[in-house]
Structure formats: C-alpha cells, structure tokens
C-alpha cells in the first residue's frame, strides 16, 4: 500500500533537480501527484492526499484510515517541505544511487502541469515509473502520532512474505529523514514490523555435472520456466555425461505446475523398431551393436514439454550446448570412468578393444594411438553441434523426418541396424498414467508402468506403516532392524515387478490398481517376517543373469514460481550401443537390451519375463522413476530421482525415507551409504565402505547373505524444501561428481 504527499507549490514551473535546490517552502493545499495507478483522494482541512493502489477496495480502506488519522490535525497543514541534500543526510545506498540517477540528463521531462485544484508531474514515458516514487511518504512510530516525512526515493522497498518474493498487502515505506510528528486521536496504528534483507534461495537445479546445473540456473534467472531449465540442462548433460544420456536415448519426465496444482507426465522412452521380433534375437545378444538400438524419443519429450510450459524460445535453450560441442568441452571424471569400464569389459569378455570393434566412437574418445582419453581431455563434437543447431532451428522434425533423420538412418544402415526412416517418422510419445501415493500430508507423483514408479511408490507405502523415525538410527540394533524391514519390502515389491510391462501391450489395469492401493501395501507389510529373511520361494521363483547396468542420469529442478520438474534420462548402458553416428554426432542407445528374451537375462540380473518380451513399437520395462512430492499446501517439498539401473527404485526409496521420516536433510540423505536387494540373486548388495557391524548383524541375526560393490550404488539428484523454514535445499550426488546450482535473490523479510 502506497500513500504519497507531494510538496510542490501551485503555479511553479521548474523541474525535479531544481526542486531539490529550493529552500524551505510551505506546503500548499489541495496538492496531489499522479501515480499511473488507480487513485483515491482524502481531503481534510484543505489538504489532499493522493493514495495509489491497483485494488480499489484497498484504496477505500486506506482513505478511511488516513482520514481518521489526520482529522482535526491542523499542525499537519503547517508542514514544511525541506531541502534534501544528500551531503547533509544519512549516506545510505538508496540516497547515493538517487544522487547518481539525478545527474543523468533527461531523467525527467522538466515540465509541470498547473491547475486551479491540483498540480501533478508530467513526465516522459521512460521516466514515469521513477518519478512516481520520488515523492513524500508517511508512516507511524507509535499508537498516538503520525510521522510525516519528506523523502526522495529511488525505488519502492517492498515488504515480502518470508521467502516467496511476493509483495505483502500492506507495504510500509520507512521514514528516514526530515520528519515532523503530530498527535492524532484514536490512531489505532499497529506496531511497526521488523524487516531484514536476506539472500534467499528461490530455485535450484540439481544435475550430475556442475556446468549443466549452472546452465539450468541461468535459464531460471533469465525468466525461463522449470521446463526450460530442464531442457537446457539435459542438452548440456548429453555433452558432459555422454556415457549416460543424450538425444539418442529416451526419458521419463514429471512436471508439477504449482499454480494449477496439477501434474503432467511425459513418456519419451525408446520403442522397438517395426522390424524387431523375437526370432531376430534367437542366437544373438542385444547387449551392444546394431540390434540393440531402439527408436529414440528424447527430443520429442523435450518438445512436448516446451510446447506447454516453455517461456524462453526453444532455440535459445540449445545455445550453450552448441557452443560446448563446437568449441570443445573437458571429458568429465565419470565419463572417463565409463570409458575405462567399457575398455576393460570388452577386453575381458570379448577379447577386443574399443578401437577394433567400435572405431567411430573411438574416433571421438581415443587418442591417435587408439587408447581411450583421460579425464579433462578436450572433446570436440562438431557434427553433434550441427545436429543441435538443426534441432534449434527446425524443432524435432529435423531429427525425425528432416535432414538429420536422413543422416542418422544412413549411418544406422552402415552398422546393419534395423531402424528405418518410417520408424523415426512414426515415433509418437505414449500416453502414460500418472500415479500418486499418499504418505501422511505428503503426496508423491510419478509415472506408472513401464516406469519404476509403481515399485518405488509401493516400497515407500510399505515402509510408511513401520512408522520409522530418527530414533531408529540411534543404535546398532535399531538401525539393523529398520534396514531388515526395508530390505524385505524391496523383495516383496520386486516379485510384483516381474509382472510389469508396456501397458499398451499388456493389460496392467488390475495390477496397477493393486500396486497403488494402501490396502495392498498393508497386506505385504503383514507378510514381512520382522525377525528373519527367507528363501526366494517365500516370495516367488526367480532366475539370475550376469550383466549389470551403469548408465542413466537424473536432474531435479524447482523454479522461483514453485513449479518443479524431475527427469530421468538414459541411453541405458555406458555409451549405449557403443555405436556413434559420425554424420550426426549422436551416441545411440542399447535400450533393446532391457527387453526380455527366451533363455536370456536383461542387464540388471532380472528374470526373463514374457510380459516384457520384445515386440514392434513396444517400450521395454524400466526402473527409472522421477518423482515429485507435494505437501497439503500445494508446494513441491521434494523433487528427486536417480540413475543406476535396477537399483534406482531401492535407492530412491531409501533417500526419500530418510528425508520424510528420519529427519535428514537432502544432503545427508543422498550422502549416506546404501544397499540394494532385488529378490534374486537372494543377497543384499552393499555399497563400498558400508558399516561392517550392520552387515554382520543382518547376516548373523536375520539370515541375510550379502556382497559388497567396489563402485558406487546409483546416483541421486534431489531438491527439498524445509518443512519448517520453507527454504530450498539441493544436492547433487558427489558419487558422480555432481553439483547443484542455486538461484538466489535479495528479499526483505518481515518478522
């Protein structure tokens, strides 16, 4: 709320700088100033006070308040306008900035309108907003007086509610200089509130590479939406973490619109090409090479999200990544580790080298001797920069029906792949069910099948019934008992996971309704033996395999408007199919390896299941489960997801449980060591350096077998809102050298 008095005499023809040089001069009656907003006038004792506010009801309310305050107060009419000399008053930042502004030429149009009843400032359009704040303000200091203050201001000081950065209804303008105090009758003025300027985090981006988090943050800072930031961050990740994701793969996306309190989900996962059939894979493994490539959907997902939620032009989101691809970017530590892993696996299992078997990929990531490049080596991807430029200029059509598509299909044919131009042209995003789980006052939103959302959601629903608290971490016995219950929850839900598939090919309605049912979670919890584990036949019959998955990436975003995005993206295995398209610079996925095949196992040691058999146009089952948790006020309080194959669901569940029930910050929850169990093989997998005493007790007291990993177990990116202070916390998993980036702004907080 703004109330202005302007001390300018009738019939005076001088500009604002000259006004500052005038000596003390009486305040004439019936004076007002134009504000450019709705106006209301109070006329008391011949003095007109102009009140400016966009809301007419607020104007009416303030008119009554002001009239009550100055009724019968004759001293106010004797108020003197005093010269403001910045040298003689307190040298605050505001006044120094004002002095600098006033020295500029043409700051205002030095013309005043004269009228028999009022005088107002006539300014140029460019300076009008400034001039309306260069006036006299009033406020109060105690319940029995009003302090009227001559004050020249550069900008309004807004009072905001906590960290929302939204103006309060009753904005107060602080008196600072040249004031006179007069008594009033029945002032009934509320006490002045304490104000503090604080640097507050109003948004954040958590990606698994610092450069990409920063790019997303800059998009938010430039007025972009959370979806804009997500797209720009993902494009960057495709360059900085090329072993994990890229436009040659696919993604799941969850979007929360706080204004509408609505959730949208996008399934941009890969699909099997039309020529895919079981008989093609009878004697051939789809782990790598041309038969492992599925039709990518990543760019189509970006486009669909931007069409609905984008604020910044599509083309602008590509600019940072185009520059990095063209000018070179350092090879990240995790990408270098991925190269070493591939080199070692090829040598051990196939007795070959990357250069011998996949020379196109080696052309980018090997030196002149054919040895893989080391961390921080500069990687140039100029063909990829051209592809990104084509997408920026033409949208997804460039890659699905245009010149980019023709180049890509030409390269795939050279590899003896089975994807055709028709496969690209006919690719469409699949409608996927959004599902929700209620945990007390918190609701989790994620995707249904073929994502891992139902698995994560059901695990957490079972855990909720155990009423875990921070006290469960207070001793070895309590901690181990809690971990046993978590592990048993994993095993029961992974038995149900075998039945999931692409719902467009398998009727999953009854299964999905069961997996989101609180009653079913209660039933499974009742089957858990809290004193012992059991053989796999206690849950279901499973078989095993040998390979594991390491690819995938996740980003989490909360924007300053409260909107949130969680995206998990993948090309499946490290560097996908290991096939690199020289014409487009795209690293192609090996998503076909996620299908089930007779007498074969998929990458994550999961049982071959008929519901997940390959078929043309089908999407393979996935563990990816981006999730957004919303409280009963409609605010996103946790945005999270992870990479790590079959371990995604169990790791997500552990991190979420620690934040929701164990009173841990998002940083603590993500940094804590983890474990995984997927029912078969029937043993726990512990992250390296997991406490030995817990591992031994789970074995000796509860009967669990276990193994230890020598590498990290999944990578989590999370953003959480403190449920007490409402401040935003974000953390990117250091296991993959990630780093979150924060959008911060100065706000005035009223206490």
Automatic annotation (TrEMBL):
<feature type="binding site">
    <location>
        <position position="645"/>
    </location>
    <ligand>
        <name>L-glutamate</name>
    </ligand>
</feature>
<keyword id="KW-1202">Platelet aggregation activating toxin</keyword>
<dbReference type="Pfam" id="PF01019">
    <property type="entry name" value="G_glu_transpept"/>
</dbReference>
<dbReference type="InterPro" id="IPR043138">
    <property type="entry name" value="GGT_lsub"/>
</dbReference>
<keyword id="KW-0732">Signal</keyword>
<dbReference type="GO" id="GO:0006751">
    <property type="term" value="P:glutathione catabolic process"/>
</dbReference>
<dbReference type="InterPro" id="IPR043137">
    <property type="entry name" value="GGT_ssub_C"/>
</dbReference>
<feature type="signal peptide">
    <location>
        <begin position="1"/>
        <end position="15"/>
    </location>
</feature>
<protein>
    <recommendedName>
        <fullName>Gamma-glutamyltranspeptidase 1</fullName>
    </recommendedName>
</protein>
<keyword id="KW-0800">Toxin</keyword>
<dbReference type="InterPro" id="IPR000101">
    <property type="entry name" value="GGT_peptidase"/>
</dbReference>
<feature type="binding site">
    <location>
        <begin position="570"/>
        <end position="572"/>
    </location>
    <ligand>
        <name>L-glutamate</name>
    </ligand>
</feature>
<keyword id="KW-1199">Hemostasis impairing toxin</keyword>
<feature type="active site" description="Nucleophile">
    <location>
        <position position="552"/>
    </location>
</feature>
<feature type="binding site">
    <location>
        <position position="269"/>
    </location>
    <ligand>
        <name>L-glutamate</name>
    </ligand>
</feature>
<dbReference type="InterPro" id="IPR029055">
    <property type="entry name" value="Ntn_hydrolases_N"/>
</dbReference>
<dbReference type="GO" id="GO:0005886">
    <property type="term" value="C:plasma membrane"/>
</dbReference>
<dbReference type="GO" id="GO:0036374">
    <property type="term" value="F:glutathione hydrolase activity"/>
</dbReference>
<feature type="binding site">
    <location>
        <begin position="622"/>
        <end position="623"/>
    </location>
    <ligand>
        <name>L-glutamate</name>
    </ligand>
</feature>
<feature type="binding site">
    <location>
        <position position="594"/>
    </location>
    <ligand>
        <name>L-glutamate</name>
    </ligand>
</feature>
């Amino acid at each position: 709320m703004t109330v202005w008095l302007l001390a300018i005499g009738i019939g005076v023809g001088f500009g604002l700088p000259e006004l500052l040089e005038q000596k003390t001069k009486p305040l004439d009656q019936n004076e007002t100033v134009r504000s450019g907003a709705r106006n209301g006038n109070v006329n008391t004792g011949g003095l007109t006070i102009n009140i400016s506010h966009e809301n007419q009801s607020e104007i009416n309310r303030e008119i009554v308040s002001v009239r009550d305050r100055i009724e019968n107060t004759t001293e106010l009419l004797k108020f003197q306008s005093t010269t403001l000399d910045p040298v003689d008053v307190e040298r605050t930042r505001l006044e120094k900035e004002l002095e600098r502004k006033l020295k500029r030429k043409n700051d205002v149009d030095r013309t005043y309108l004269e009228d028999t009843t009022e005088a107002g400032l006539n300014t140029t359009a460019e300076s009008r907003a400034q001039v309306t704040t260069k006036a006299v303000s009033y406020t109060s200091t105690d319940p029995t007086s009003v302090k009227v203050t001559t004050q020249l201001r550069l900008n309004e000081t807004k009072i905001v509610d906590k960290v929302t950065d939204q103006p309060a209804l009753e904005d107060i303008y602080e008196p600072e200089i040249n004031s006179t105090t007069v008594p009033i009758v029945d002032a009934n003025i509320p006490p002045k509130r304490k104000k503090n300027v604080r640097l507050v985090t109003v948004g954040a981006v958590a990606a698994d590479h610092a450069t990409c988090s920063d790019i997303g943050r800059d998009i938010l800072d430039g007025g972009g939406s959370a979806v804009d930031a997500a797209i720009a961050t993902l494009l960057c990740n495709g360059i900085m973490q090329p072993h994990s994701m890229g436009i040659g793969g696919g993604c799941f996306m969850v979007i929360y619109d706080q204004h509408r309190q609505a959730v949208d989900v996008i399934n941009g996962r890969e699909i099997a090409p039309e020529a895919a059939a079981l008989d093609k894979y009878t004697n051939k493994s789809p782990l790598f090479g041309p038969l492992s490539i599925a039709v990518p959907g990543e760019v189509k997902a970006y486009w669909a999200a931007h069409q609905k939620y984008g604020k910044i032009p599509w083309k602008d989101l590509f600019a940072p990544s185009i520059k990095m691809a063209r000018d070179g970017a350092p090879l990240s530590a995790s990408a270098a580790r991925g190269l070493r892993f591939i080199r070692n696996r090829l040598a051990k299992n196939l007795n070959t080298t990357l250069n011998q078997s996949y020379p196109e990929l080696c052309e980018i990531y090997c030196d002149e001797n054919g040895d893989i490049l080391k961390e921080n080596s500069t990687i140039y991807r100029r063909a990829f920069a051209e592809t990104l430029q084509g997408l920026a200029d033409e949208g997804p059509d460039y890659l699905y029906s245009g010149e980019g598509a023709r180049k890509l299909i030409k390269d795939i044919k050279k590899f003896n792949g089975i994807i055709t131009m028709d496969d690209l042209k006919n690719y469409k995003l699949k409608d996927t069910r959004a599902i929700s789980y209620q945990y007390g006052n918190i609701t989790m939103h994620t995707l249904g099948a073929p994502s891992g959302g139902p698995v994560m959601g059901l695990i957490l629903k079972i855990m909720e019934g155990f009423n875990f608290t921070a006290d469960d971490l207070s001793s070895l016995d309590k901690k181990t008992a809690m971990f046993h219950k978590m592990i048993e929850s994993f095993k029961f839900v992974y038995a149900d996971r075998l039945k999931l598939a692409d719902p467009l090919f398998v009727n999953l309605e009854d299964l999905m309704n069961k997996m989101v049912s609180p009653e079913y979670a209660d039933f499974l919890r009742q089957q858990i033996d809290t004193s012992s584990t059991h053989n796999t036949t206690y849950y279901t019959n499973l078989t095993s395999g040998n390979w594991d998955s390491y690819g995938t990436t996740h980003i989490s975003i909360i924007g300053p408007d409260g909107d949130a995005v969680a995206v998990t993206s993948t090309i499946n295995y490290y560097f996908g199919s290991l096939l690199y398209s020289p014409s487009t610079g795209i690293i192609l996925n090996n998503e076909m390896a996620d299908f089930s095949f007779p007498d074969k196992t998929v990458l994550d040691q999961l049982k071959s299941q008929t519901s997940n058999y390959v078929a043309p146009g089908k999407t393979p089952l996935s563990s990816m489960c981006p999730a957004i948790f919303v409280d009963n006020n409609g605010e996103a309080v946790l945005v999270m997801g992870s990479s790590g194959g079959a371990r995604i669901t169990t790791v997500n569940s552990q991190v979420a449980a620690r934040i929701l029930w164990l009173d841990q910050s998002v940083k603590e929850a993500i940094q804590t060591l983890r474990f995984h169990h997927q029912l078969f093989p029937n043993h726990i997998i512990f992250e390296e350096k997991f406490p030995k005493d817990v591992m031994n007790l789970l074995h000796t007291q509860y009967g669990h077998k276990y193994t230890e990993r020598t590498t990290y177990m999944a990578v989590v990116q999370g953003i959480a809102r403190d449920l007490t202070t409402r401040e935003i916390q974000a953390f990117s998993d250091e296991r993959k050298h990630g780093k979150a980036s924060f959008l911060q702004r100065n706000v005035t907080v009223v206490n």
